[in-house]
Amino acid sequence: MSITLLPVLEVAAPAIDWDQVGPSPFATFWQNPSAWEEFQAKILRLSGFADHRQAVKGSKYLRIDDWQPEGLRRLINAHLGATGDDRMPVEESCALFGGGVLFIDNVPVLFPQCCSTIATVYDWKPLLVPQFQEGYFCLEGHPAPKAIREEEYLTIICEDEGEDFYPPTPPVIRVKVADLAVAVEQAEWQMQRLCEQVNALSAEFGAESISRYLIQGV
Fold first, then answer.
1. How many CB atoms within 10 Å of residue 107?
2. What pTM did the predictor assign?
3. Cα–Cα–Cα angle for 64, 140, 194, nearest 5°?
4. Across the 218 residues of the chain, what is the mean pLDDT of every consecutive 10-residue run?
5. Do the Cβ atoms of 182 and 63 come closer than 8 Å?
6. What is the secondary structure of 57-118 as a DSSP string?
7. Which of 24, 64, 160, 169 is 20 to 30 A from residue 208's alpha carbon, by CA?
């Protein structure tokens, strides 16, 4: 079993001109991936993010490993909602929207949920410590999965009475802690590089080390 935790970003809604984009395809992206891939490509093109790769065909999530300063600048500006004096201070902002997509044997099994931020990638590491027994994680998104430690395995429960996981998610995901640890380490390496790229823009947004707010969510 191969496990990957892929950090992803989501283009903020203010960056998208929905009148230009037009209506969305029928069905959902996992039911009609080709049409949704074209639709998402159109969104990326019209919003200035055409060079960025989708994490999963037809999804709204973008990989973090090929961003350039201009794209990050545009994404941050859209996230903060305005420019000049009306722009939200970075220190008061939540992290950029996104999270981590969990792949098992190259198949995506768990996506970031509604309102999730990129900072939730860091929520996976506490699940690996020997003291962890059980608890919900990635709490910035909803619904939130629950993890249960069972010796060398971690069972992830993706069920919620109030709302469904999106896209449809296996109700139970079981992984080896050691395998997940490797995936988390690789994800954190990508996150560190993203932090460095975002920090290079700090002066433009009037704060030091803006990755603390926009990536780490502290």
1. 10
2. 0.93
3. 20
4. 96 85 87 88 88 87 92 93 77 97 98 97 98 97 97 97 93 98 98 98 95 96
5. no
6. TT-SEEESTT--HHHHHHHHHHHH--SGGGSPPGGGPPPPBEEEEEEETTEEEE---BT-BG
7. 64
